[in-house]
Amino acid sequence: MTVLDGSIVTVALPAIQHDLGFSPGGLSWVVNAYLIAFGSLLLLAGRLGDLLGRRSLFLAGIAVFTGASLLAGAAGEPALLVAARSLQGVGAALSSAVSLGILVTLFPERSERAGAIAVFSFTGAAGASLGQVLGGVLTDAISWHWIFLINLPIGAAILLAARHVLPADRGLGLAAGADLPGALLVTGGLVSGIYGVVRVESVGWTAPSTLAWGAVGLALLAGFVVRQATAATPLMPLRVLRSRRVAGANLVQLLLVAALFSFQVMLALYLQQVLDHSALATGLAMLPAAVTIGAVSLGVSARLNARFGERRVLLAGLTLLVLMLALLSRVPADADYATQVLPLLPLAAGFGLALPALTTLGMSEAREDDAGLVSGIFNTTQQVGMAIGVAVLTTLAATRTEEGLAAGLPRAEALTEGYRLAFGVGAGLLVVALLVALSVLPRRTGRARSAR
């Protein structure tokens, strides 16, 4: 549900703008308000789960998210919708930050955990693509309001099931390390940094406000690192990031998510604005990718990780994704979907291979007392990567499109030039991710050796 809401709005944005009268600049905040709240609170929420109990925080997050979905679905003016989206981000952070921590403590055995992580990764890898399909169907068949209202029965079912399925945990207690100064520093730093990044599309990279927000964010995050090195009970013990597997997996994930924004969102925009697909047709056109990702992450990823090790599976997945985006960077303005776009979508299987491997690596050093924190770190890099992808790729595509229009290109060709640049830059980010994985991640983990 929380992953879907990061992408379900993308195909509904034109309808939302028409009904509520958003300005072009204001419309981006339907997405940005969610990203900022979600990304900036994950680390704090993960630690609070360790201290107060992960089950309790998960239930609180789902309740907040579901209530915010009702407000978003009932919104009749831009300000209310943006506020509701921000509140959705808060609920998503509370529930998502502890989800992996719950999973790794529920499944301590390696074989069971591998299967559980495959299912978990499926919700992340396929969820974004399924969100676009569902968003198109609901927007065309009923109205955009239902992309939010559909969360109400789902949220109620989650709350009911979780009370019976998830075991109660007491948590360590706030006395074990709340670290309020550290929490304020990291939350303020992430809010400032993400806010500065998501505003790049409208004001540019060198605007004084962009530089100011970036400087404030970096200063606060630097203060957070100093605080963690000296605090008696740090919010994030720095030992967590000393592991090559954990640090490398988080860096690769940041690059991967930033790059895949070009696929999940830019391809949807290309289908609508260049090939003139409706919201419903766009969602259905993305369905083969979602099905492929789901089949790979659920069907074969756990077995491949056990047989070959997470590093090799990750490298194979990244290679497929580089190839897909490199080929998409050559699509023409008059492409035929069936012959020039559809054949590339099975390469999205790389996401179904890469994400379970990354998740296993990212949680590999989690202990019982800090599983929520490690989960929060892993989810934070995912949201920060998404924010960077939004800012960098959208800005580059828009700039290239404006240059094409100024040079006299037809609108469809100018838009295609922008999208092709975004696909190419996304491929470049994945090449960097490949290099990081090759140089930083160990060649074989202990678990992979034992599997052989």
UniProtKB/TrEMBL annotation:
<feature type="transmembrane region" description="Helical">
    <location>
        <begin position="87"/>
        <end position="107"/>
    </location>
</feature>
<dbReference type="GO" id="GO:0022857">
    <property type="term" value="F:transmembrane transporter activity"/>
</dbReference>
<dbReference type="InterPro" id="IPR036259">
    <property type="entry name" value="MFS_trans_sf"/>
</dbReference>
<keyword id="KW-0046">Antibiotic resistance</keyword>
<feature type="transmembrane region" description="Helical">
    <location>
        <begin position="174"/>
        <end position="198"/>
    </location>
</feature>
<feature type="transmembrane region" description="Helical">
    <location>
        <begin position="210"/>
        <end position="230"/>
    </location>
</feature>
<keyword id="KW-1003">Cell membrane</keyword>
<feature type="domain" description="Major facilitator superfamily (MFS) profile">
    <location>
        <begin position="1"/>
        <end position="445"/>
    </location>
</feature>
<dbReference type="GO" id="GO:0005886">
    <property type="term" value="C:plasma membrane"/>
</dbReference>
<feature type="transmembrane region" description="Helical">
    <location>
        <begin position="144"/>
        <end position="162"/>
    </location>
</feature>
<keyword id="KW-0812">Transmembrane</keyword>
<protein>
    <submittedName>
        <fullName>MFS transporter</fullName>
    </submittedName>
</protein>
<feature type="transmembrane region" description="Helical">
    <location>
        <begin position="421"/>
        <end position="442"/>
    </location>
</feature>
<feature type="transmembrane region" description="Helical">
    <location>
        <begin position="27"/>
        <end position="45"/>
    </location>
</feature>
<feature type="transmembrane region" description="Helical">
    <location>
        <begin position="57"/>
        <end position="75"/>
    </location>
</feature>
<dbReference type="Pfam" id="PF07690">
    <property type="entry name" value="MFS_1"/>
</dbReference>
<dbReference type="GO" id="GO:0046677">
    <property type="term" value="P:response to antibiotic"/>
</dbReference>
<keyword id="KW-0813">Transport</keyword>
<dbReference type="InterPro" id="IPR020846">
    <property type="entry name" value="MFS_dom"/>
</dbReference>
<feature type="transmembrane region" description="Helical">
    <location>
        <begin position="277"/>
        <end position="301"/>
    </location>
</feature>
<feature type="transmembrane region" description="Helical">
    <location>
        <begin position="384"/>
        <end position="401"/>
    </location>
</feature>
<feature type="transmembrane region" description="Helical">
    <location>
        <begin position="251"/>
        <end position="271"/>
    </location>
</feature>
<feature type="transmembrane region" description="Helical">
    <location>
        <begin position="313"/>
        <end position="332"/>
    </location>
</feature>
<feature type="transmembrane region" description="Helical">
    <location>
        <begin position="114"/>
        <end position="138"/>
    </location>
</feature>
<dbReference type="InterPro" id="IPR011701">
    <property type="entry name" value="MFS"/>
</dbReference>
<keyword id="KW-0472">Membrane</keyword>
<keyword id="KW-1133">Transmembrane helix</keyword>
<feature type="transmembrane region" description="Helical">
    <location>
        <begin position="344"/>
        <end position="363"/>
    </location>
</feature>
